[in-house]
Write a structure and sequence with these properties.
There is one protein chain. The longest helix is centred in the C-terminal third of the chain and has 26 residues. This protein starts with 12 loop residues before the first helix and ends in a 14-residue tail after the last helix. The protein has 327 residues and is mainly α.
Length: 327
């Protein structure tokens, strides 16, 4: 994932990509750029060309991009195929040097499993065994993945501690990992019911991402951000917000198509983004008044959206929401 491992000034992402010398890494970085800027069709097309690349690092990176781009495209079978390739690599099939090959395999395996909210593969080594072998940008993203896993475990304070340590320890800024780290911090703060701190982190991430149109991460995290995008971006950046919501719908549909069968969970696929956000907050014991103040809508509007969600899910009470939602 060369773009993930490249420091660049916001607004200079494409120039940074085209400045890469190695042809294989240049091709991967172009696919990354297409993906992170919300062009899933182009990302999948570019990544598909690299799935049989002679360089195993390029090949494995392409698998990860291809898997996630096809979630947005609603191509669950293609995503599963790429995820299976990643799983096979994690089992030991690598033609890089043994130590660095295992580190790259573990990085991709951890990333693929955690961001789909799947259990880690049994073959995954402890993170401490491979983290130091990763280059700095990938190491920062791996620690985002670790923070995300802590979030899923409900350990929000530790997740924030990991994120703070990474951001304080960076000598240079790697924009892709930092966007993801800041979004994870926003998730943690929302879970801790600290929306002001969450909004601050979201805006830092947005000001890094917006000059290059790196909107995909915001669509990916929409459901976990608890209405922050609506409360923070909708008024000032309406066009970008619409693009993000479209990405959120498409990515969520693909994510659920892979996640639910693999886990047996029942994450809802029939709610609007507003219903999902309100249901997430309600499941975390936010009152209708608190939700309305956060989203800038009336308590009655919140109640109407909740009633619609209850009807679609076939439930009657807030306590029944959690089985249909993200953590």
């Amino acid at each position: 994932m060369p773009l993930m491992n490249t420091p660049f000034v916001p607004g200079e992402c494409e120039r940074a990509v085209e400045g890469l010398d190695d042809p294989g890494m240049l091709a991967v970085a172009r696919a990354e750029y297409r993906y992170f800027s919300g062009s899933a069709e182009e990302a999948a097309r570019e990544a598909r060309k690299l799935l049989a690349h002679a360089d195993p690092a390029a090949r494995l990176s392409a698998c990860l991009i291809y898997a996630y781009a096809n979630l947005t495209l609603g191509q669950a079978a293609q995503s599963r195929m790429a995820l299976n390739e990643i799983h096979e690599a994690l089992q030991g099939r690598s033609d890089i040097s043994p130590a660095h090959g295992r580190a790259l395999n573990a990085f991709v395996g951890y990333t693929a499993a955690t961001l789909l909210h799947l259990p880690l593969p049994q073959e995954a080594p402890p993170m401490k065994e491979f983290l130091a072998l990763l280059p700095p940008g990938l190491r920062a993203f791996a620690l985002y993945v670790h923070a995300h896993r802590l979030y899923l475990d409900g350990d929000y304070a530790r997740s924030l501690g990991v994120i703070e340590a990474v951001l304080m320890g960076q000598a240079v800024t790697y924009p892709i990992p930092e966007i993801y780290l800041r979004l994870a911090a926003s998730m943690d703060y929302m879970a801790l019911r600290k929306p002001d701190e969450a909004r601050e982190q979201l805006l830092i991430a947005w000001h890094i991402a917006q000059p290059d149109g790196l909107v995909e991460a915001f669509g990916e995290h929409h459901g976990l951000l608890g209405g922050l995008l609506e409360a923070t971006l909708q008024q000032e950046w309406p066009d970008e917000f619409k693009q993000i919501i479209d990405l959120a719908y498409r990515f969520s549909d693909g994510w659920i198509a892979v996640h639910n069968p693999a886990t047996g969970d029942m994450v809802a696929d029939n709610l609007t983004t507003t219903e999902f956000v309100i249901s997430m907050l309600a499941a975390r014991d936010w009152s209708n008044k608190e939700i309305g103040a956060h989203l800038g809508i009336s308590s009655n509007t919140v109640k109407a959206h909740l009633n619609s969600a209850f009807h679609k899910l076939g439930i009657n009470a807030r306590k029944d929401l959690s089985q249909y939602l993200l953590r």
